[in-house]
Amino acid sequence: MSLSKFKNRRFKPKRRQILLVQSWWEDRVFKGVASYAVEHDWVLDCRMRWSRELPKTWHGDGIIAYTGIATPQQHLIDFVKAQRVPVVETQTPRIAGSGAVVVPHERIGALAAEHLLSLDFQHIGFVTFAENVFEAIRREGARKAVTGAGATFHALDFAKFEKQLPSLPKPLGLIALNDINALGVILACTAAKFSIPEEIAVIGADDTEIFCDLAPVPISSVNCDYEEQGRQAAALLDAMMDGKSPPAEPIVIEPHGVTVRRSTDTVAIPDKDSARFLRYLRDNFRELMNLEQAAQDLGVSMRRVQDNFRRYLKHTVIQELTRLRVEHAKKLLQDDPDLKVEAVGMDSGFANRFHFMKAFVRVTRQTPGQYRKSLRNAEAAK
């Protein structure tokens, strides 16, 4: 080969070989790592996602590891140490010299409590299933938020929970470590004939969408932003493979708020009849309705309901009905940019276009067209 040909030949840099060693697989962390890997042309070894077994031989450049929280898995720790490559952990670090990208468990517990406090719950409990450091930290975050707001905190043990339920104050807000535990709480409450969320509201954490959406009562949940955790872990590993030292303290990924679903879709109204009427509105707002007739059908006093709405929701029954309809209309406008305004109004429960336009402008200070335009501008600015 001539020298000129040799000079013109292109040599690609060696692709970095990255291994995922995980005792527990959160697929959104995996997705965040994978998206970074694609952008930076990594070779990502994720066989453990399916085999649950460590590779017999591996020669690579870096590892992203999760070696367990409640029970550290020593064989994983030993394997990772033996590779002598840069390591980023996605829990409190256990390996000397590693970096770490973590979610703030105390803040997650506090966010769940703050959500229930925003719904005017004065009695809020945390239901513990299996005592571990992970659960204890989230419970403590919830306790601090509840007591700091002047409300009453209840530390509950699921093993005794069903027996305690009848004597617990209502309305009651309950927090669980994660969505699976929240489902257990919901099933126990419904088996004991308590209504979710009117008497007992329940919130979990992790926001596993398919699990939360398909639960018997869809579960409100703290979104821990696991995908961002995965991306940040990959970015930190990339920097460490370039020779940079990891930060002295773990990088903390802030939660992405609360995804509200049916299990907390309420306001804590101590009066059962008024809470039942609120549930009726939320279930039927898309239908044309006569409020007086609805109260009569439910066997409740409309005057009493009005008084309790003003006291606890700070607005009237008709204002709540309008708010529900406008919120639904906003979602339709966002989800389907081609849906005609008349169809949006009818699907949201308004009698005609005029009533819809008038209510929408009163609530949002925008016409439906202006609202759609603001959504497009916000999307374009990203």
Q: What is the count of distinct domains?
A: 3
State the shape: globular
Unreliable stretches, pLDDT < 50, 5 or more residues?
none
Per DSSP E runs of 2 or more residues, the count of β-strands stands at 12
Measured as a percent range, the helix fraction is: 40-55%
Name the average pLDDT: 91
Our estimate of the beta-strand percent is 5-15%
Spatial sequence of strands, sheet with the most strands: 2-1-3-4-5-11
CATH topology of the largest domain: Rossmann fold
The CATH architecture of the largest domain comes to 3-Layer(aba) Sandwich
Give the topology.
Layout (H helix, E strand, L loop, with lengths): L2 H6 L8 E6 L4 H13 L3 E3 L2 H4 L10 E5 L7 H10 L3 E3 L9 E4 L2 H14 L4 E6 L4 H16 L3 E6 H7 L7 E5 L2 H13 L8 E6 L3 H6 L5 E3 L3 H16 L9 E2 L5 E2 L12 H13 L6 H8 L3 H11 L4 H19 L5 H7 L5 H12 L3 H13 L2
Parallel strand pairs: 1-2, 1-3, 3-4, 4-5, 5-11, 6-7, 6-8, 8-9, 9-10
Antiparallel strand pairs: 10-12
What would you say this structure looks like, in words?
- The chain has 382 residues and is of the alpha/beta class.
- It has three domains: 112 residues, Rossmann fold, CATH 3.40.50.2300; 119 residues, Rossmann fold (3-Layer(aba) Sandwich); 105 residues, Arc Repressor Mutant, subunit A (Orthogonal Bundle).
- Helix content is 49%, strand content 13%.
- It has 17 helices and twelve strands.
- A six-stranded parallel β-sheet has the order 2-1-3-4-5-11, with helices on one face. A six-stranded mixed β-sheet has the order 7-6-8-9-10-12, with helices on both faces.
- Strand 1, helix 2 and strand 2 form a beta-alpha-beta unit.
- Helix 2 crosses helix 10 and helix 15 packs across helix 16.
- The longest helix is centred in the last third of the chain and has 19 residues.
- The radius of gyration is 26 Å and the shape is globular.
- The protein starts with a helix and ends with a helix.
- The mean pLDDT is 91.
